[in-house]
Design brief:
By secondary structure, this protein is mainly beta. The chain has two helices and nine strands.
């Protein structure tokens, strides 16, 4: 279990808002898993301040993006087609990894990192459900409807959305 030590910061130094708490333990100096980036996302968003906060907000802006798949992984695109939805798993490489409690702008107080969709987390893995608008498998380019990550964000994986297994059961 990770110990949590309150480190309140009223001055908002280092991007920490009042009420936020950093993890007490430093990030491990070793890798627990070996991950390979299979490509990257090309988006219109160069700065965090301009980037949509979620995929819904990104769709409202109606700006498509592209996914670039590295050559070694392009054969795995076989079976994907325009019109299909896929989950993109990204490595949010510019996100902080040290907050246990965060104070989101939309909430009235602190919340645990695992109760939020924030990119700030111990393992900054992003999950994005996007629609493929066009695909050039040979070039490894997928045009997608929208995305809520910064340009150049590394891609870990993509998986098809299957309503039969991904949609929650009816109540």
């Amino acid at each position: 279990m990770t110990d949590i030590a309150p480190q309140h910061n009223a001055a908002n130094v280092d991007g920490v808002r009042p009420g936020e708490v950093r993890f007490a333990a430093p990030a491990p100096a070793y890798d627990d898993a070996g991950l390979v980036f299979i490509g990257r996302i090309r988006s219109p968003w160069a700065e965090r301040s301009a980037c949509p906060k979620n995929i819904g907000a990104a769709r409202e802006r109606a700006q498509p993006a592209t996914v670039e798949i590295d050559a070694a992984f392009r054969p795995a695109l076989q079976g994907l087609a325009a019109g299909a939805y896929v989950h993109l798993l990204t490595w949010l490489d510019r996100a902080s990894r040290d907050l246990a409690l965060q104070v989101p702008r939309h909430a009235s107080g602190p919340r645990g990192t695992f109760s939020l969709r924030s990119p700030v987390r111990p393992n900054p893995i992003g999950m994005h459900l996007v629609r493929i608008e066009a695909i050039d498998a040979e070039a490894g380019i997928l045009t997608i409807d929208a995305i809520d990550v910064l340009d150049g964000t590394p891609l870990l994986d993509l998986k098809p959305y299957l309503a039969s297994v991904d949609a929650p059961p009816a109540p």
